[in-house]
Amino acid sequence: MKYMLMFISDDSNWDPSKPETQEAYKRVGEWFGEHTQSGKITGGEELKGTNTATTVRQRNGKITVTDGPFTEAKEAIGGYALVDVKDLDEAIAMAKAWPVLSTIEIRPLVEHPE
Amino acid sequence: MAGPQHHRDPAARRAPGVRAEALERVFREEAGRLTAALVRSLGDWDLAEELVQDALVAALEHWPRDGIPDNPGAWLMTTARRKGIDRLRREAGYREKLALLQEEPMPTAATHQDERLELIFACCHPALPRESQIALTLRSVLGLTTAEIARAFVTPEATIAQRLVRAKRKIADAGIPMRVPTALELPDRLAEILGVLYLMFNEGYVGSASPERRDLAEDARWLAQLIVQLMPDEPEAVGLLALMTLQLARAAARFSADGRLVLLQDQDRSRWDSRAIREAIGLVERAGQMRRPGPYQLQAAIAACHAEARTWNETDWTQIFMLYEGLARMTGSSVVRLNRAIALSHVGGPARALAEVDEMADELDRYHLYHATRAALLRELGHADDARESDRRALALTENPAERALLMERIGE
Q1: Superfamily of the domain at B316-413
Q2: Beta strands in A1-114 (DSSP E)
Q3: ipTM computed for the complex
Q4: Which of B177, B184, B185 comes nearest A87 by C-beta?
Q5: Hey, where are the domains in chain B?
Q6: pLDDT one-digit tens code per residue, B374-406
Q7: Which of B15, B204, B252, B350 has its CA 20 to 30 A from that of B83?
Q8: Average pLDDT for A76-80
Q9: Contact in structure between A5 and A79 (CB atoms under 8 Å)
Q10: What does pLDDT average to over chain A?
Q11: Binary contact (B125, A93; C-beta < 8 A)
Q12: How far is B334 from chain A (nearest CA, A)?
């Protein structure tokens, strides 16, 4: 089954110049490397911080464009991985091994017939 | 739910006499096996359960008249398959599943292995909400009808039906597997199952002796026994089984003839089931030999201490205090610390115990037994007015009729 793992965290402390951050990048790289090699990962990206976010809302026939993420929450999606595994347990095991302190939401993908 | 709703006549299952009990036993033993085998081969949880219910209904029609067959599992499997084929012929769009049912190798009772463990792991998957885990376990593993589950929880049948539908949809949509987790995941996942069973047990045990309600405590104990049978090397499972066995062994003495709650210190100990107590103490020892202590084993050891005392005065409070000490360190739970303080009052006097209890005021202010415990300690220390005030706080926080009656008696209302 195909799932998206969404990595959610508070990105306000995320500073790429700090050595801890570089260490974290290294471990994330290893995680992606390991699971890509075993064929479980089909895609994934890191997102820039929420300070770069722009939100477009379509409501009652009106469209507004505003600065910032779609919710006020402190935590936001910072990246994702698309995985293709046997079942939810495998996806959970991957999420548990994610090397950076985060909340991870796992959602199955809707698989449309060709 | 896909397909029509089916209800077995509850009166038939509760009919008095040996035959009803024998049926009950066979249903419990076979329903889970049958569900597991059908879920596995059909890949459709809804359909599998419908067929199990159909087969059980057929058994209720035939067995009381013809007797229980020698191999009830095979009879039920054959019937479920035949019912399934009938049902699928009537419904369009089920061709593939019809083929699955008619195709070999389809599990027959003789060849299909016991997959109830896999089934339980799926029912108690942490990706399902706790109340659905319980409902689904009762339905799939024990074969209870939706109506029976609703009665047990004093919840509308529609609510339970909806819970079950949502749970089964989540299993299918999110890809929750029916398998025993890897060694790495096993401790957490087993703890989840034991948590479900303990909650189920308490629902029945605290829910008191209403004859209208199904005895979930007995069902939970049966399931714990099944887990122990299927995973004999898991000491916490053995500990939970021991704990349940001990609590049930004392159940008969918990209520007076007029339905009032009788506290441990006032119970007629001759009404305790001494054979069950011996069996449970054997389980506590067996778990202890595995040298992997855990909260259920400690709770069982505490219950065993109480069960072994011939009178309230002979209770080994020093031992109980030490066990609570270990349990408090292991769980950090404030309710456990409250119980440790009660043990302390017997070892070190009520004043020291009260001092400890008062430290928990912030965490336990909404817990009725916190106030009831304070009241008992205050009364022992001669502060009758403060004690009554605490009992009033306790009364305001519980809706359990038996507990309320006891508190009102204490307050003198």
Answers
A1: Tetratricopeptide repeat domain (1.25.40.10)
A2: 2-9, 41-46, 54-59, 62-67, 76-84, 103-108
A3: 0.86
A4: B177
A5: 1-113, 316-413
A6: 999 999 999 999 999 999 999 999 988 888 888
A7: B15
A8: 93
A9: no
A10: 92
A11: no
A12: 27
